[in-house]
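Table S5 (text form). Sequence records supplied for joint modeling of the two-component complex.
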Amino acid sequence: MRSLVPVLVVVLGLLALWYAAVPVMNAAETLTRAERAGAVIDPPTAVERRDLSGLTLALRNPGLLGESWSLERPRLPAPHQVAAEIWATTWDEEVNGRRGIVQSGSFSNRSLIYHGGITLAATLSGFLIGSILGILLAVGIVHSRTMDLSVMPWAIVSQTVPIVALAPMIIVVLYSVGVQGLLPKAVISAYLSFFPVVVGMVKGLRAPERMDLDLMRTYSASRGQVFWKLRLPASVPYLFASLKIAIAASLVGAIVGELPVQKGGLGARMLAGSYYGQTVQIWSALFAAAVLAALLVWVIGWAERRTLRAMGVAG
Amino acid sequence: MAEARAATAPGPADAVISARGLDLTFQTADGPVHALKGVDLDIRRGEFVSFIGPSGCGKTTFLRCIAGLETPTGGTLSVNGMTADEARRSRAYGYVFQAAGLYPWRTIGGNVRLPLEIMGFPRAERDERVARVLELVDLAGFEKKFPWQLSGGMQQRASIARALAFDADLLLMDEPFGALDEIVRDRLNEELLRLWDRTGKTIGFVTHSIPEAVYLSTRIVVMSPRPGRITDVIDSPLPRERPLDIRDSREFIEIAHRVREGLRAGHVDE
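The corresponding structure-token record, covering 585 residues in total, follows.
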């Protein structure tokens, strides 16, 4: 309960900042509309106003900004507009809409739930591929000097290439060999998510101290036994830390992968919103993605707590 | 001194451990370090031998050589009639480290069971052995606890149980009680003696405490650094049965005095 107060203070502060920014960002559009309705603006002509900043305009016409928070196509929508859009494209659309799940039996392709689901599927498959790949690479790196020297530099280089530049190429290449749909997006997700897992797992598998390893030598344990009974359990806390980063990266990868494909998903929703100047739609898709990310990270954190408790490590 | 020892030393025939002219040189960035030089020693079955000396004298290194964890660069070393590495692979010894080194994700029982799993003991036998050695170190009833739930002394007892679980005849202990306070240490020393008496194991014990070495050992090996070598080997005249207050007896004080002289002589040599 005590931790709720600072969180609420921060949220309220951000909301206040947001509301304050809305009239400044939307000043030009708001004042034009007011002018059409017959109001006198300072300065009076559009040519004079053209080079003035939003802040100047807003400060010189404080009485005419009422519409800023309710424009149909604002540059920056107000929080309540975004909230209303999210409500309309989730609960309202699914429960009351003609294409919603209640009336049609399947999720509406206008709803964020439908698009979130598409993104979630790509995120989870990419996360699964990326994590498994990351773990396997880490196991190889820890056990083979050749892999240690050869794989790690490439893994690092791979992350320096901007994913937005790479994503369309991955999709085109995979499309040309007949792979489309979920998999190309999952591949982009995996591309982003394997890296933190490799780094975390290499550190985790190397976490056992010399004494722990010596103990295994005194038992004349095989490499496999050292792995299963020492290295792997010792790496679990590291694994979960990197899985949290990996799942967030997976989500980013899935969204980026949806941009060039335009067949649904939160990324497609954002891009469509930007094509048609629907900032409210962009912002609501953005929030949907943020909520999804928070949820996914929370699920990993929950699994982490359960696992560590079962291992007796977390006390 | 060396001649005198050779005359009284037993032949390798009844020796569990036999070292002859053992050398170990580490190559470091600052040049070679002579961790061990010309070490001759025989340890007979059922002996309790302590290695004492200042840090850098090679006492731990020698123990690690016996365990096959370090490879000597010269001389010969046999353990149970094999090379140290063969002995390690035939699981000839239990090793107790300075820290308990229990795996935190395993319960106390799970930690003791670890060597049994690795060595492929049948499941039913594992449980029976775990129960037996935990009883032996007075930890019956703690099988399901995790290491962090136990005190440092109890953890170290658990690590001794782990070393005893697979019934190796040889127990190698590297300053096992060094991190514990004096009172706990005294009690564990007493328990260790009882354990040694009951199991008849051969024990090699590294320590830097003179009273601990004198109280526990049938033989005390005094070592000195740069290069690491043996400067004195003292046979203890103390009886097998040793109450704690034996440490006030004249013999005890005499041996302790001789160990101290040996340590001091090693230092003057430099």
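Note: The two ends of chain B are 18 Å apart (CA to CA).
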